[in-house]
């Protein structure tokens, strides 16, 4: 058995996304000893900071600094490291240099799984764009001719889990994984509280977690209070069905 630490990579457009949609998975796997790395493309300074922009005299730089501090605090609570690309939001302005860095991160972290946005989201153009970027980097990272070295490429492209969008029925989101996050719900809720700029979403995403927990318990036959829903992009290759 390998003693190498397992890892997970989260690729997200805005700070709130990794907390509302994947905070339980991040906290759970960090608790299990995984290295959890979050790549946050923007600070959500334009479109994801409603509370901040209600403050008199708010500036773009103040908003970005505040959202960065919130995201760093939330990531620390969840047990993850975080890296920002400062791509801007609404829309994301993703550069070649950012793509190059993201590919390097895939190879460096060599994640067992990737969590990112749904491939469709008619309500937010940043989300499917971030998902497409995450998948593009995942593919290029396994290309032997991309930054070839003497040891070759040791990275293996992992499964990609789409986390739940805000209005799943409009995004063709059909989850095939419900993760039991009951044991880390308190940690996720503490991370919520580090995002006062989006206070209006706290209760909504608690209700989502309770609904998914009920569905998870019904599908598994095991008690589950809080859950997170995911949809895989690629088929899983297995030796037996169950």
From TrEMBL:
Q: By its UniProt entry, which SUPFAM superfamilies does this protein fall under? A: LmbE-like
Q: Which domain of life is it from?
A: Bacteria
Q: Which InterPro entries match?
A: GlcNAc_PI_deacetylase-related (IPR003737), LmbE-like_dom_sf (IPR024078)
What's the protein called, per UniProt? PIG-L family deacetylase
Protein's organism: Roseomonas populi
